[in-house]
Amino acid sequence: MNLSHVRRASARAALAFCLASAGCAAPTNNLEMAAPPPPPIEIEESLALSVDALDVRHGSLRIEASMLDGSADVSMWLGGTCETREVGRGIATRSGFAWSLSRDEIARAIECSLVVRVHAIDEDGRRVRRTAPLDVSVALASDTADEVRLFRLESHGASTKMTFLAPSKARRLHVAGTVIGVETEEERAPKGAFVSSFMVGNDDLARSMLNRRRISLLGEHFLATISVGSMTLDVAEPEPEVPTSSDEG
Q1: What's the pTM?
Q2: Where are the domains of the chain?
C-alpha cells in the first residue's frame, strides 16, 4: 500500500471517530442561539411647545417654534386620522426648531393638522418620546373686500367649503388661477343678501397663500392665510416707508 492510500484511510478513520464523539458534533444553524434583546422602551410624555413665527420663504411655509425639555432629534408628522407620514424638513436644537412645509404638505396639514415628536434621554437616563399636537386651520383675510363677506368656513377632507354673503348672486370663485363653480344648494340669507358656497381644494388654498395670489368673488378680493398652533401667518402688505424731509434753514 502506497503512502497516499494510507493517508486517505487515516483521514476517514479520524472523521468517523470525530462524528461518533460529542465534541465533534455537526455545527448547528444558530436556531438555538438566544434571540436579540428587545429595543429599549420609550416613555411617552407630552411636549411643551410654542409656535413663535410663521413666514413664507422660498415657496415654503416656515414654522419657528420653541420647546421646553426638547431635543435636536425632531420630526413632524400628519395628525388626526390621516396616514402616518413624516412631513417637512428643518433644523433643531434642544430649545427650538425651524421647519419648512411644501405646498402639498400644507394642503395635507390643513386637513390633518400636525404632530411634533422629539426623542430624548431624561435625567434618569431613560429614553423618552415627547409629542405635541399642532392644530392647523385656514382663513381668509380681506383685501379690498367691502360688500362681499365671508360667512362660514368648513373643512371637508381635502377641500374647504367657503360660504359668502354678497349683494348679488355669485356663480364663480377665482382661486390662484382656478375657477370654481358655485354649489347648487340653497340657503336662507339675511334680507338683501345672497348666499354663495364654493368647495375649494386645499391645494389651491396652499398655492394661493404661498404665492400671495388673490381669491376673488364679484370683483372683490381676499387673501388666504393659515394658523399653526396659536400663530397666524400675516399676509398684509408691509406699510410703505414714508421718506422724511428736513428743512434747511
Answers
A1: 0.77
A2: 43-134, 137-232
